[in-house]
Amino acid sequence: MFLYGMSMLASGLERASGGRLERTLEKMTDTVIKGVALGALVTAAIQSSSATTVIVVGLVNAQVLKLRNAIGVIMGANIGTTITAHILRLSDLQTDNFFLMLLKPKSLAPLAMIVGILFFMSAKRDRQKNIGIILLGFGVLFTGMFAMEGAVAPLSNEPWFTSLFATFRNPVIGILVGTFVTAAIQSSAASIGILQALTSTGLITYSMAFPIIMGQNIGTCITPILASIGASKNAKRTAAVHVSFNVLGTIIFVIGCYTFQHFVGFSFWDAPIDKGGIANFHTIFNVTVTLLFIPLVGLLEKIARTLVRDKPGDRDQEITAITLDERLLVSPGLAVEHAREAVVQMANIARQNYLSAIGLLFQYDPKVVERINENEDVVDKLEDRVETYLLRLGERELSDSENRSISELLHTCGEFERVADHAENICECADRMFETKTKFSKKATEEMQTICEAVKEILDLAVDAFQNVDRRAAASIAPLEEVVDEMEQLLKDKHIDRLRRGKCTVDAAFPYVEALSNIERIADLCSNVGESVLTYDSRMEEIDRHEYKRLHGDQHDSGYQAQYAAFTAKYYGRLKKKAVSE
């Protein structure tokens, strides 16, 4: 029950943060001090140093975070995880004050569970549901703590239990026990909580607790070690930094503590320790070790590079590493953002392919064709990776806004992939023209350039709307797409008229019409992207009905009509003028 409560509390806090804290790790870790502060803040917020270090390993593997910058975050994570022990120490709160008694976990835990259940069952928005999960997790956590205390209290009278803890006076055994127990449950906060529960027996002394706590800090390194399997060299080095930081810190503290105890002595050394004492030492240990190693970040990096050496070809392999790292799935908000970045990359490649392809219609270049084909392969691979990644993410417990984001990304990913497909089709039209030595007539070239320019603008709007979640850019797509439809029909009619009058060759007719159809389809796909941005915007609940309808592109809306008129004058009007001049 204790472990489940801790998991529920961490899950609620993680979902409430929506990945915002984790995303700051990408942008604000340029100095060690900032890294330490952010690592502590993120870990305190999501109540899991293991989750933080796994995220850091994933960011390093994705080449978003540099190894040196990751070191500070790891140090901070060790500090942030101590907050759990300070929360659990509240169960020892002794007071006669009525209001303070209400804050005691024995009084507060049942109330928190009741309120949490009410919030979770009745809330319609993610924010209130997450608050309910946090309160429920808080209540279950302390209920589990009280259950553990009640279960272990009778053991204080058992001779075998007393003799067992007597062996923990040996610091090596204490460190090993702390290491293996924490490695088994993969949570230093949880193992610290179990140790705090055991203090109710009165058998745990300061001399026993100190080495166990230090061992618990080493044991928590198992999670990033497992996460780094199959990752890049720098990701493995990140895990190595975590291990070396905690091992070296433990060695320094053991030498310091036991030297002082031998020559001077701690007055409390053999006294029973309580929950507050465990929380205090856990914090003192991690803060002190962090302060010692902040100036020695370069040394930790050098140790990591010595433990995980480069091999020939490793550098090239890291350059092509996949940015969609599955280690980031532990933070759905962060995983969604990285998937979005991959789709943005797809969108930009697809846009570049379109620009290159329409250029081939007027000036053929075999090297450009080769580049378009290479880019098309990249887009196809990115689509496959993004879809697989998002489907894996969808298997996790997600908030409604995260589910909406996944739906948007899956939809938009397919649209941009098809944009690249149509660009490749345009490239094939250019290939046929080159093979048959066919060229468009002067009028056909001018008209084709006009519609290509219009679709370039609509494609720019679509990429911008998706990348920046710009609803106004998205709303501008629909009126422009309507103008493009009218332009396509006009150009087909004019082309047929030129064929009838003998102004255009039959050989040029097929590639012209096919290229025109593919260009118009790209405009349709951009319209789908704009609609997707408007439909799946997680902030849509803040927009009233009239605003939503207007942004969706209501053809009877004055804003829509004004944009339609402006685009008609800008593009369709130019074609009509050319028709009159003919």
Automatic annotation (TrEMBL):
Keywords per UniProt: Cell membrane, Membrane, Transmembrane, Transmembrane helix
Membrane is among the record's keywords: yes
Pfam families xrefs: Na_Pi_cotrans (PF02690), PhoU (PF01895)
Superkingdom as given in the UniProt entry: Bacteria
Any one cellular-component term (Gene Ontology): plasma membrane
TM region(s), chain numbering: 36-60, 67-88, 108-124, 131-152, 172-198, 239-261, 281-300
Localization in the cell: Cell membrane
InterPro entries: Na/Pi_transpt, NaPi_cotrn-rel/YqeW-like, PhoU-like_sf, PhoU_dom
Molecular function per GO: sodium:phosphate symporter activity
Domain PhoU: 344-429, 451-533
Membrane topology listed for this record: Multi-pass membrane protein
Gene3D superfamilies according to UniProt: Phosphate transport system protein phou homolog 2, domain 2
GO BP terms in the entry: sodium-dependent phosphate transport
UniProt cross-references to PANTHER family, sorted A to Z: SODIUM-DEPENDENT PHOSPHATE TRANSPORT PROTEIN 2B, SOLUTE CARRIER FAMILY 34 SODIUM PHOSPHATE , MEMBER 2-RELATED
Protein name (record): Na/Pi cotransporter family protein
